[in-house]
Design a protein that fits this description.
The complex is a heterodimer of chains A (461) and B (458). In chain A, 23% of the residues lie in helices and 42% in strands. With 461 residues, chain A is of the alpha+beta class. In chain A, the strands form four sheets. In chain A, strands 1, 2, 3, 4, 5, 6 and 7 form a seven-stranded mixed β-sheet that branches. In chain A, strands 11-10-9-14-21-20 form a six-stranded mixed β-sheet. A five-stranded mixed beta barrel of chain A has the order 8-15-16-18-22. In chain A, α1 crosses α2 (70-88) and α3 (120-135) packs parallel to α5 (206-221). Chain B folds into two domains: 2-216, PmbA/TldD superfamily (PmbA/TldD fold, 2-Layer Sandwich), CATH 3.30.2290.10; 220-458, no CATH class. The chains are: A alpha+beta (461), B alpha+beta (458). Chains A and B meet through β2, β3, α2 and α3 of A and β2, β3, α2 and α4 of B.
């Protein structure tokens, strides 16, 4: 691929491109969908293609193709430069790239257990067993289990001389467990995965996990309506992660700042949260679902500290946003695939841990709520408001977790919530694998510790 | 033939390679190759900022072995034989099915699918047309902002070859223009317009102008005093609402799993007299037209509702085999030519081609003139949350106007409209005389709809 990419870059230059980069990608994977005790879908696939981006007088052109015949590739190069030239005639805000170190490297993240080494039949057996495990719990009404593995080889080459190749594997398993009873339906989702292989099944027992979750789903059937009003809240690592990702992470994306879509515009260096709060976005966590060694503009990744002891410290930048804002690129440009243009995205976003034990977080709460996980919600990054529904919740009475609560909703102002963080447990972790959507889907991880907020707006939804 | 002028690989040849491997392995198989070539320009503010060209092609292979089906796909031609073997091993784990791939058939000819003006459209002309969208918006008010919009044009092709001797292909051109216009400084109002066609017969200037006019006319919106009132949906809003509630209820897949309120209601009254709905895979120049569907069943015109009576469902091969009604002459159930795929990366399921809705009409102005208290809704949000099993819906709109005493009185800030579409179909006041082609994922040819007595909340 490297020779081919270099030839295309040379061609782009001859067409007049001031800068060009080529991203190549080859994937091989399988996906299984097991529902209603039947294998509904088993898909194995291979995909290969490339995207070329050209810059001319402050304007971009982009072309992608998975037809890799010579003529088609030449056409794609010519088209990308032509589009850039045409855009440059009307563009008012000139685009450019902030300088970065030019690198040449090949990075291989080898899984401990290569999923390609396991027969499709055996993978299906895992899904069957997860399904069976969940159904051993009385009250479970429906189970669906999905499994995906993808082996990816991606390359980044540019007219500046970058030549980067990365080999990695994504493996994930998820189970949706539904219980019915007492005239109600309740469901939860178990998620395992990472930039890893089948070792994900050894690190976290999916069968035990399914049984545990099935029991929790059944418990939620008898859950009571939550209280509403301002109450102390303890969030579990998953919910902390969702709040950090959705409410703060998206507001830290430099394209949101530039587009006037972020409450954090003009706040750099200001205290925006309790001094207990430190928030990272870290693509270098080995094995996490949102990890990558170089971003899709060739920038080597590092841990970013978005909020440091309550002070806004850093935005997520691509080379293009960094150029516009006069800041440093930090490896946050990601594209869904070779056929998409890179955008500013998160990776693994999490809050650092504190010095408390979980039990200590509950101390002194006369009446409050303990909320776990999330089943979606809404965020307005421009206004800085959020609304989430917890996956699971309990009442806290006199420092003790008591009855389960159903459909707990949390809402409020992002910055107020971060300022009301009064205690953090030591147990910070990058949590479950997920996908973040922003017109394109990319794999991410999010997490944090158990977190106590002095007052949160809670209610039933 | 136009097919020879279009760019990209020889899809029939790729399919034949796959089928050859299946024959060697001694299994039944079907290869579906598709290609989408597309150029897109994007408007961002008052600039044409980003242009993209993309070429995506590949082959999806279904193998049928011992009555079990398996699927695999690839975009790498040298992996084709290997992909057939992947599909075969998947079939050993797959569900039992009771159908065969279709055999060779005489396919009808459909006119107007390929237009040279789209095939020959060059990048410069594409940019000029995009500029027209902006000019159209600016012609209404210089302060109008166009945060998104633009155009795309390109070619769609597919080919199907199977071990039953079927061999066919399709080619069509597509051209689409859209504009999202925003008006106002403090209180922003926004409106969207889009048109899609197989030829360049869309006036790009008018698309920009219409979106801008609507956005400007929404300025000064007032709050609404809610209650039960008459609601008129424009073709664009109606297509969106139908697309998520009524139309999926006709799909064989959903009827089969019970996720359709139309299950078991064949021959029964499901809407007001005079209402006809058909799905026509042969409509000349139709956006969903082709000589066959995406698993090789011949396209045809299916009447699903006539004079308010449910006449049939829309089947792909699998859902027809499993749940289809037997024909009068007791032949085995057949596909209605509604097997559609999300390109080569997915398997077929039942879906609509060109949905055409007609009924007792009244001139649009007369409809408005007959309404004492109601709203005119141009665009809706949240229709995807509707439930095709019950057709209960609750949608939001911020592109609507109050109708008072037979007049479009003033814009409304926002409102929520909720109800049950199945039940509302019995309370249609009239259809407009303004049938319009609306294309999102599906092509609709649909007029305005006037419903009486609907819950609207301010």
């Amino acid at each position: 691929m490297e020779d081919l990419a270099k030839m295309l870059l040379e061609l782009a230059r001859r067409h007049g491109a001031e800068y060009a980069d080529v991203r190549t990608e080859r994937t091989e994977g399988s996906g299984l969908d097991y529902r209603d005790k039947e294998l509904k879908e088993a898909v194995t696939s291979t995909d290969e293609g490339l995207g070329i981006r050209a810059l001319f007088k402050g304007a971009w052109g982009f072309a992608s193709t998975n037809d890799l015949t010579k003529d088609r590739l030449k056409d794609a190069v010519a088209k990308s430069v032509k589009i850039a030239k045409l855009c440059s005639l009307s563009v008012k805000e000139h685009e450019g790239l902030a300088p970065v170190k030019i690198e040449k490297a090949t990075v291989t993240w080898k899984p401990k257990k290569d999923p390609m080494g396991m027969a499709l039949e055996d993978k299906v057996q895992v899904l069957r067993d997860v399904d069976k495990a969940a159904r051993t719990v009385k009250g479970i009404n429906a189970v669906s289990v999905g499994y995906y593995d993808t082996k990816v080889e991606c390359g980044f080459f540019s007219t500046e001389g970058m030549a980067l190749v990365h080999h990695t594997v994504f493996t994930s398993l998820q189970a949706n467990i539904v219980a019915k009873g007492h005239g109600k339906i309740s469901s939860m989702r178990l998620r395992l995965g990472g930039t890893k292989g089948l070792e994900i099944l050894d690190e976290q027992d999916p069968y035990e996990g399914a049984i545990d979750m099935a029991k929790r789903v059944v418990t939620m059937l008898t859950a009571k309506k939550p209280p509403s009003g301002r109450l102390p809240l303890v969030a579990d690592p998953d919910l902390t992660g969702v709040l950090v990702h959705e409410a703060l992470g998206h507001a830290c994306e430099a394209d949101a700042i530039l587009g006037g879509d972020s409450i954090l515009e003009g706040q750099m260096g200001n205290t925006i949260a309790s001094e207990l709060v430190t928030i990272y976005d870290d693509p270098t966590v080995r094995g996490a679902f949102g990890s990558y060694p170089f971003d899709d503009e060739g920038v080597r990744t590092r841990r970013k500290v978005l909020v440091k002891n309550g002070v806004l410290n850093e935005f997520l930048q691509s080379r293009t946003t960094a150029h516009k804002l006069g800041m440093e690129p930090n490896g946050s440009a990601r594209a869904e695939s070779y056929s998409a243009r890179p955008l500013v995205r998160m990776s693994n976003t999490f809050m650092g841990g504190g010095d408390r034990k979980f039990e200590e977080l509950l101390e002194g709460i006369t009446l409050g709520v303990y909320a776990k996980g999330s089943r979606g919600g809404q965020v307005d990054t421009a206004k800085g408001t959020f609304q989430f529904n917890a996956q699971e919740a309990f009442l806290i009475e006199k420092g003790k977790i008591t009855v389960p609560l159903r459909d707990l909703s949390l809402s409020g102002d992002t910055l107020k919530m971060l300022s009301d963080v009064v205690a953090l447990a030591k147990d910070s972790r990058v949590g479950d694998p997920g996908y973040c959507g922003k017109g394109q889907w990319v794999p991410v991880g999010d997490g944090g510790p158990h977190m106590r907020i002095s007052q949160a707006v809670v209610g039933g939804s | 033939m136009a097919g020879q002028k279009t760019p990209g690989r020889d899809l029939l040849c790729l399919c034949k390679r796959a089928v050859k491997e299946a024959v060697r392995l001694g299994v039944e198989a079907e290869a579906f190759a598709s290609m989408a070539w597309e150029v897109e320009t994007e408007i961002d503010g008052s600039n044409i900022t980003i242009g993209t060209e993309s070429m995506d092609f590949g082959v999806g292979i279904r193998v049928l072995s011992d009555k079990r089906i398996g699927f695999a796909y690839t975009s790498v031609p040298k992996d084709i034989a290997r992909t057939v073997r992947f599909a075969l091993s998947a079939s050993r784990l797959g569900v039992k099915v009771d159908f065969d791939f279709p055999s060779k058939a005489a396919f009808p000819h459909v006119k107007g699918l390929v237009h040279d003006d789209v095939l020959n459209l060059d990048t410069e002309q594409g940019f000029t047309l995009t500029k027209e969208v902006l000019d159209g918006a600016m012609s209404v008010d210089k302060k109008v902002h166009v945060p998104s919009g633009g155009l795309y044009y390109g070619i769609e092709r597919f080919a199907i070859v199977n071990t039953m001797g079927l061999e066919t292909d399709h080619v069509g051109t597509v051209y689409s223009v859209s504009a999202n216009a925003v008006s106002g400084e403090e209180n922003k109002t926004s409106a969207y317009d889009t048109k899609t066609s197989r030829s360049l017969d869309i006036n790009a200037f008018k698309v920009g102008k219409k979106a801008a006019e609507l956005a400007v006319s929404l300025q000064g919106g007032r709050p609404l005093k809610g209650g039960k009132m008459d609601v008129v949906f424009t073709p664009q809003a109606m297509a969106e609402l139908f697309g998520h509630t009524l139309v999926p209820a006709f799909f064989g897949d959903r009827v089969a799993t019970g996720e359709s309120y139309l299950k078991g209601r064949l021959g029964k009254r499901v809407a007001v007299k005079g209402l006809n709905i058909e799905d026509d895979g042969l409509r000349p120049s139709g956006l969903g037209s082709a000589r066959c569907d995406e698993e090789g069943s011949p396209s045809r015109r299916n009447i699903v509702m006539k004079d308010g009576i449910l006449k049939g469902y829309l089947y792909d091969i699998a859902s027809a085999a499993k749940y289809g009604q037997r024909n009068k002459d007791r032949k085995v159930p057949e596909s209605t030519g509604n097997g559609l795929r999300p390109g080569f990366r997915g398997v077929p399921s039942s879906g609509p081609r060109n949905v055409m809705i007609e009924g007792r009409t009244k001139p649009f102005e007369k409809i408005i003139a007959s309404i004492d208290n109601g709203v005119l809704v141009h665009d809706i949000m949240g229709a995807h949350t509707a439930n095709p099993a019950s057709t209960d819906f609750s949608i939001q709109s911020s592109v609507l106007f109050k109708i008072e005493k037979g007049q479009i009185a003033y814009p409304i800030q926002s409102a929520m409209i909720s109800g049950n579409l199945a039940e509302m179909m019995q309370r249609i006041g009239a259809l407009g005389d303004d049938v319009e082609g609306v294309a999102g994922g599906t092509a609709y040819y649909i007029p305005s709809f006037w419903f009486r007595n609907v819950q609207v909340t301010g």
